[in-house]
Structures are given as structure tokens and as C-alpha cells.
Design brief:
The chain has helices at about 345-355, 485-495; strands spanning about 20-30, 35-40, 50-60, 65-70, 80-90, 105-110, 115-125, 130-135, 150-155, 160-170, 170-175, 185-190, 200-210, 215-225, 235-240, 245-250, 255, 265, 280-285, 300, 305-315, 315-325, 330-340, 360-365, 375-380, 385-390, 395-405, 415-420, 430-435, 440-445, 450-455, 465-470, 475-480. The chain is mainly beta. It has two domains: about 20-325, Glycosyl hydrolase domain, family 43 (Tachylectin-2, Chain A); about 325-480, Exo-inulinase, domain 1 (Jelly Rolls). The strands form seven sheets. It has a six-stranded antiparallel β-sheet, with no helix packed on it. The chain has a five-stranded mixed β-sheet with strand order 4-3-2-1-20, with no helix packed on it. Strands 13, 14, 15, 16 and 17 form a five-stranded antiparallel β-sheet that branches. The radius of gyration is 22 Å and the shape is globular. The structure holds beta-D-fructofuranose.
Length: about 500
């Protein structure tokens, strides 16, 4: 087992389970200084099925400790444990605490062996370490809909009640409750809003403050891409919520990520007010090929955690996401670039020295306003593979092209060129690239244009270089990133396993 967490495509700073299958993030809750990350997990196989909730914890969203499986499938009882959420219940509104503990309450979809999906409750009285099933599950019965799942709950302060959103085939249903156990139907959000090219899954609803200090509500919904030609799969809506009904401001389809590898993304509940961030994580894969990716003994990992902001532009309000600042905790070999021409030999030398495996590139490109430019970053190796990340200001696009990176995934849907539209570019562009061993996450336009993509290369990349057409100046910071899986953390993990 000495190679654990050091296999060919193993993420070095994105969370993946030590072994076996992982999909959606579940039960994201901050409690008592700890970020909990539960996840869809098959502890007995490297493929989807036999769903349990795996568990990991972190103090900084970057270093993760593996914990024992939290919720076990009960094929003869509630069934398999599908996606859901967790909240802390400090007022003990559920009545489930008996000795002054703060109960953690998980609401998740229980799926029977016959495929009937209902919402069930489990709770922990020891800060998330061990969990018990509520005796009278399910708490929301299936109303006769095949796809009826993925509850996400939050405390709505204005109306002093718990609110639950779940996905029901092609729409979202909202419920409300005073005790997390008895739920009353509140409203429905459905067509003509958003993309319906696939079943809706994994909703999340939360408030964000705009630059003008106004509160807006954001609803996030994943759309399963399995049977569509589309790559993007996490859409969002901006609007208002009064405790009963969500009203979207627009029927336009808005995507949170233009790559294929971000699904079931949801946010942490309970992040303290003095921190104030809304932080999201997604499953970094796609139902179009997730079950065929060539990794062993694990399959599936999370995106980098991202902070969400509402920003306004010529297109109105948009949701922007950028990596959480804690990524700085694993930076090394930092080189600062102080406004030099992109073809300056010293700058080229900075890139030539970089080992391309684990990187954080935070770059600002500047050029004379109103002129068109193309520039970006390229990864190559001597096997002829190439990953290209390009900004074309003339067409207003950010492009990540992985078509020339290996062909290790048998599914033809994998080799893709992803394109994100940009706002008007006015002589300035910020490009952030987070590169792990076998993935890249690209953030352009201050987080409005995001592309997440896995890379299953034949041989590791050997070089990373800047390229540009036309004169462009570059500023910023480039650094390598350290693996979170050190020999120490792995031996500690093996001792406690
Ligand atoms: C989304 C999803 C959820 C479901 C879970 C099952 O990826 O299909 O809708 O609860 O995965 O693992």
C-alpha cells in the first residue's frame, strides 16, 4: 500500500477517497471549527452502486483527514444512501439531542432495493463521528415520482423555519419545517426556467450579497448530461426567495462551469458569519464517462473548493467562483512577475523552470485596449500530447482543449474542446490555472468563466509555457503546489484504518 495516494492519475491536493468509488459531495457542514465533507461512496467497489456516505474532515478546506464511513447502506432497511445535506441544530428543534449536545442532522435520499426514493433523516450527537438513523424514516414519502431526491436544507432566518429543496425529475420542490422532521410542501420551481436536457439533481439555495449591498438568492441545479450532447451541467438562477417561493429574474440558462468535470456542486452550510463566505465543492467528473475513467484503486475526486460571489457586468448579475484563499497554504516556490512583456526571456525562463505537475498560475494579461489578442498557457510532453488554455479576446472566448491529451478514456465523449464566453475584454484579463496531476481548473474573467477538466495523459507533462499573439504584458504570481498526502499523513491514516 506504500503507493497509496501516489498512483499515476491520483489527485495530490483535490480530495479523493483512499479506495473505491466516489461521486457527489454530501452533507457539507461547518461545525465547531471543522469543515465536514461527506460523499457518495461505494466502499466495496470501484464503480457506482451500493451507496453509502463516506466522510472526510478539514480545518482549512485543503488538507483532508479520512474518517470512517458515516452512513451505511441498509438494503433490508431504509435502503441505499443517496445524496443529501447536513445542518447543525443548535436549538435542538428536532428534539433529538438528549443531553445538551448540538445535534448534526443529515437529510438524504434513501433509495430502496426497488428504486423507491424518499427523504430520510440520520443524526449525530458526537459532532459527526457516528450517526444513527431516525426511527420513523422516511420523513418525506415518495409521491409517485421516479426521480425524487437530493434534499438540501437551510435555516431561513426571516421566516424562522427550516427550508428544504429537492429535485423531482424536471423541477425543484420546496418544503418547510419547524423541527426538520415534519415537512410541509411550500412551492415548486420549474419550466420555463433553465435547461431541461436531462433530469435535475442536487439543488442548493442560498443568499448572497451583491456589490451594492442587496441580498439576492441563488438556486443551483445540476442537469444530468448523461444523454445529452452538452458538457456543461451545473446551472444557476438568481432571484428572490420569501421563505415559500423562489422567483428567478431570468429564464436565460446560466452555467457555473463550462467544462465537463464539475457535477452535483453544492455549498457548505453553517460557515460562521464573521467569515461570511459561501463555499462550494463539486464532484470532478461527468456522468457521460465517470464509470469508465482509468483510475484504480479509486475513482472520482472533488473540485477545488471555490468561493462564490455575485458580480455585475453588462450582462446583469452573474455568479463568479474562484478557488478558496486557503490554497495559499500549499503554495511553494513562488515567483512574482511584475509587468513584463510575455516574450521577455526572463519570464520564459521562469516558466521553463516550473515543474508542470502541481501548479497555481495567477496571471494578469494587459494590452492596448481595443486591440484583439490571443494568449494563454500550454502544457506539452515528448509523447506529443498537448493541453492548451487560450484566451481569444477577438471572439471573446476562453478555451480549454484536451483533445490532444491521451485517449485513455474509451468513451468518445471525453476528448473535448471546452469554450466559455467572456464579457467584453478591455485590455486586461485575469487568468487563474490550478493544475493537479491529472486535472486542470481554469478561472477567467475573475471567476465568471470557469472550465474544469480531467486529463488522462499517456505520459506526464514535461513543460509549461506562455504563448501570445501580439504584444501582451504579464503580471502575477506562479507557484508550485504541495501534495496534501505526505508519508506522515498516509502512515497516520493507515494506523487509524
Ligand atoms: C447525482 C446523483 C444524485 C443521486 C446520487 C446517487 O450525481 O445521481 O441525484 O442522489 O448521484 O449516487
Amino acid at each position: 500500500m506504500s503507493d497509496l495516494y501516489n498512483e499515476k492519475y491520483r489527485p495530490q491536493f483535490h480530495y479523493s477517497a483512499p479506495c473505491n468509488w466516489l461521486n457527489d459531495p454530501n452533507g457539507l457542514v461547518w461545525h465547531d471549527g471543522i469543515y465536514h465533507l461527506f460523499y457518495q461512496h461505494n466502499p466495496t467497489g470501484n464503480d457506482w452502486g451500493n451507496m453509502h456516505w463516506g466522510h472526510a474532515t478539514s480545518r482549512d478546506l485543503v488538507h483532508w483527514d479520512n474518517r470512517p464511513v458515516a452512513l451505511n447502506a441498509e438494503p433490508m432497511g431504509v435502503g441505499y444512501i443517496f445524496s443529501g445535506c447536513a445542518v447543525a441544530d443548535p436549538a435542538n428543534s428536532s428534539g433529538l439531542a438528549t443531553a445538551g449536545e448540538v445535534p448534526l442532522i443529515a437529510l438524504y435520499t434513501s433509495c430502496t432495493t426497488d428504486g423507491i426514493q424518499s427523504q430520510s433523516l440520520a443524526y449525530s450527537l458526537d459532532d459527526g463521528e457516528t450517526w444513527r438513523q431516525y426511527a420513523a424514516n422516511p420523513v418525506i414519502e415518495n409521491p409517485g415520482i421516479r426521480d425524487f431526491r437530493d434534499p438540501k436544507v437551510f435555516w431561513h432566518e426571516e421566516s424562522e423555519q427550516w427550508v428544504l429543496a429537492l429535485a423531482a425529475n424536471d423541477h425543484i420542490e420546496f418544503y418547510r419545517s419547524h423541527n426538520l422532521i415534519h415537512w410541509e410542501h411550500a412551492s415548486r420551481f420549474s419550466k420555463p426556467y433553465g435547461s431541461n436536457q436531462g433530469v435535475w439533481e442536487c439543488p442548493d439555495l442560498f443568499p448572497l450579497v451583491t456589490d451594492d449591498g442587496e441580498i439576492k438568492w441563488v438556486l443551483i441545479v445540476s442537469v444530468c448530461p448523461e444523454h445529452s450532447a452538452r458538457d456543461e451541467s451545473v446551472q444557476y438562477f438568481i432571484g428572490d426567495f420569501d421563505g415559500v417561493r423562489f422567483e428567478s429574474e431570468s429564464t436565460e440558462i446560466m452555467w457555473l462551469d463550462y467544462g465537463a468535470d464539475n457535477y452535483g456542486a453544492i455549498t457548505w452550510d453553517g460557515v460562521p458569519k464573521d467569515d461570511g463566505r459561501r463555499i462550494m465543492i463539486g464532484w470532478m467528473s461527468s456522468w457521460r464517462y465517470a464509470r469508465e475513467v482509468p483510475t484504480f484503486p479509486w475513482r472520482g475526486n472533488m473540485t477545488i473548493p471555490r468561493e462564490l460571489r455575485l458580480v455585475s457586468s453588462g450582462r446583469g448579475l452573474e455568479l463568479a467562483t474562484l478557488p478558496v484563499r486557503e490554497v495559499e497554504n500549499i503554495r511553494a516556490n513562488i515567483a512574482r512577475i511584475d509587468r513584463v512583456s510575455a516574450d521577455d526571456p526572463n519570464l520564459q525562463a521562469v516558466f521553463a523552470r516550473l515543474s508542470p505537475e502541481l501548479l497555481d498560475l495567477d496571471l494578469l494579461f494587459e494590452w492596448p485596449a481595443s486591440a484583439a489578442r490571443s494568449f494563454g498557457v500550454r502544457f506539452t510532453n515528448s509523447s506529443g500530447e498537448k493541453l492548451s488554455i487560450a484566451v481569444h479576446t477577438g471572439t471573446g472566448t476562453l478555451v480549454v482543449d484536451r483533445t490532444a491529451v491521451g485517449q485513455r478514456v474509451p468513451n468518445p465523449k471525453f476528448a473535448r474542446r471546452f469554450e466559455a464566453p467572456l464579457r467584453e475584454t478591455d485590455g486586461k484579463f485575469n487568468l487563474r490555472v490550478i493544475k493537479d496531476r491529472a486535472s486542470v481548473e481554469v478561472f477567467g474573467d475573475e471567476g465568471r468563466a470557469v472550465i474544469s477538466a480531467n486529463l488522462f495523459y499517456d505520459a506526464p507533462f514535461e513543460r509549461v509555457e506562455l504563448f501570445c499573439l501580439g504584444d501582451v504584458d504579464v503580471s502575477g504570481e506562479v507557484s508550485t503546489l504541495k501534495s496534501i498526502w505526505t508519508p506522515d499523513s498516509i502512515s497516520k491514516m493507515q494506523e487509524t484504518a
